[in-house]
Structure formats: C-alpha cells, structure tokens
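Task: sequence design from structure.
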C-alpha cells in the first residue's frame, strides 16, 4: 500500500495518535573528498530522523531513501519519494514530538569520504487522530517547521568575532522567549545565513533550538503584523 494512503487510512489504535512528517525539498551542501573519482549522483542517500529520548517503533532506524534531484547535470537537492514519514505514538507522547527538538541527518554509503550537511529542510508535523463522532481519521493540528543542521562544518573555521556576534544574537533571542509557550518568533540579522550554523550550534549546547523560518511562514507572520526570520524554543528533556 502507498505510504501516503497508509498514513491517512490505516486504523489508529485506541490511546494512540498518528504523527506525519511532510518533508519538502531538502537543500544540502555536499563535501566530497573523492570528487575526481565519485559523484554524489551515484550515491545511495538516506534521511535519518532523531526524536531524542522518545522511542517510537514506527521510525525506520535504517533511514529513508532520498531521491537525488539533478539540475544542469549537477546535484541540486534531495527529496523523499513520497514526501512523508509517519508513525503512531501514545497520546501522552504527542507534546514530546511537537515541542521537543527533532534532528535530521543525511548519510550516504561512504560517510567517511562523502558528507552531506543540511542547509535547509522545510517540513510540517501533522497530528492525526481517530474522530469517534465522524468515524474517520481527522487532522488535529499542522505545525510548520524548518530545520538547519546545527553541526558546524568541519572544514570551516569561525573567527572569535563571528562567535561573539552569534553569542550576542543568541542572548537576545533567549530573553525573548515566552515562558508560557517556551518559544518565540524573532527577527535575527544572521548576515544572510552566515551566522546561522554557529548560533544553532551554541543554542543546542545550551538547551535551546533555533529554526530558520521558511518563506511561507514568514509571509503568514507578516500578515499578522509580526516580522520574524527565526523561531527559538526551549528544548524539553524528559
């Protein structure tokens, strides 16, 4: 059965809810130590999802195959063939998925020679539940998020000035957090994304998650009179 059909049609057991990750196009930076002999176009690449301490039987620990998109004979981006990853969790664990830090990683067959760094991964988390009145699976909520890999690139050296500016921006962001929601939308001048990897990495070490907002979310917030480029959240560890 098609994965998309399964997610929206297979029975959801009592006490469970279904979580669907709708993953859009994945923008990656490829570091290839054997470029003269091997192209990423010939690699088998998988997307791995890390839900932290939350243990879910339905998550494929072997990873999900990605399709390599080619433009002008070069690798332009990657995508999931059916766009979604889904699994069922106890209803008590929903907040863990929606509020906690979700990490993604892309790996191929030769990680020691060919590494993939996620620049941007836009996705939606859809919460599905069986509606006893309608007797059908219904959507409870849809949350839009954007992920950028927090690991600082190995082959990039950051100056003390860059780290200092990043720490200053992060400090301002932390003070904007609304303790009721444990998060905040904010506008950060990260110099066209240059400071994002540093800020995200420092934030992760301190127990925060910073996400770069996708264009659709930015436009929606503008309509509400709110200018924002990032979302900062306090990571909850259970």
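Answer:
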């Amino acid at each position: 059965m098609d994965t998309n059909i399964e997610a929206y049609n297979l029975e959801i057991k009592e006490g469970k809810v279904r979580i669907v990750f709708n993953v859009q196009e994945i923008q990656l930076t490829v570091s290839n130590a054997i470029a003269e002999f091997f192209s990423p176009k010939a690699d088998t690449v998988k997307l791995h999802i890390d839900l932290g301490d939350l243990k879910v039987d339905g998550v494929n620990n072997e990873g999900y195959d990605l399709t390599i998109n080619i433009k002008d004979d070069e690798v332009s981006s990657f995508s999931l063939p059916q766009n979604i990853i889904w699994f069922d969790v106890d209803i008590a664990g929903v907040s863990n998925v929606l509020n906690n830090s979700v990490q993604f990683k892309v790996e191929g067959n030769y990680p020691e020679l060919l590494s993939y760094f996620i620049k941007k991964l836009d996705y939606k988390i859809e919460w599905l539940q069986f509606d006893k009145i309608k007797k059908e699976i219904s959507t409870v909520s849809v949350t839009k998020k954007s992920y950028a890999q927090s690991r600082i690139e190995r082959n990039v050296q950051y100056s003390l000035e860059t780290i200092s500016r990043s720490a200053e921006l992060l400090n301002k962001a932390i003070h904007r957090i609304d303790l009721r929601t444990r998060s905040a939308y904010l506008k950060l001048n990260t110099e066209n994304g240059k400071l994002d990897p540093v800020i995200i990495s420092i934030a992760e070490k301190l127990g925060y998650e910073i996400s770069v907002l996708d264009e659709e979310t930015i436009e929606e917030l503008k309509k509400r009179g709110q200018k924002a480029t990032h979302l900062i959240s306090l990571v909850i560890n259970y």
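Residues 136 and 217 are 29 Å apart (CA to CA).
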